[in-house]
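1st attempt posting a full record on here, be nice pls
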Amino acid sequence: MGCVSCAGLMKQSADERDIVTLRLREPTTIPIEADSICPDFFVSRTLAEIKALPAFYGRRKVTLGDLFEIEGDRSDRLVLEGDLRHVKKIGLRMSHGRVLIRGNAGLHLGAYMRGGEIVVEGNASDWAGAHIQGGFIRIQGNAGHRVGAAYPGEKRGANRGMIIVEGNAGREIGAKAWRVLIVVQGDAGEFAGAYMIAGTIIVLGRLGKRAGAGNKRGTIVALGETPDILLTYRYECTIRPVFLRCYLRRLLDWGLPVPTAAVDGDFRRYSGDISALGKGEILVYAKPE
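the predicted structure (as tokens):
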């Protein structure tokens, strides 16, 4: 699945010299558009050049130096500090490097990301990992709606990459996903995996209603309470998927609370959505009595 070790960034020492640190000067409710906060732009720039990178504070064009206290230069390892819930597009289109956010993150985190890793030590807003094309995102809190989903009007969404949400996630996660792995430790909202083309979504908590609507070939795994299955899915059999065993073992290695019995456990397979191509599936963990 092309995953990156999620422990890598968090093991980085705070006093490493090759880290660029950005501290938001003051909390704000005014949206900040900062797609220039991306390792690709920092790795070859001096401190003065980093401070001069453009951003938008509401409608006003500013620089990163106007909004952040910045330390370090010429690095693809970034640490962001402060209340960043209104800072949008962090890590947009990043292809390598590491970003650690010590707090919450705003809209479109890691959208169109192609490589590297992002770790959020808080919550993330809507559209995290939208159209992700590679790399790894780990959100240690909750995530908003449409994690790893396609933007309106697009035919295909995420294509490769991996997203882990350790809390709950909103609706329409993985919508129109092409190839991706999305894991939600908590609950997922309605329409998870809607119109999936392929890929895998694993939900350890409660899987919301209407999961897999329009699903063509994607796999949705429900490890929590038995979900409501759409009528356009039909029960096929009870199986022990080999590929899923590999995924669950890796998630256990990364510290996620996967039921150990599920690794070699039985799953009820429902195929659908028969209103679409009908080659997708929802796998529901058959908990032992």
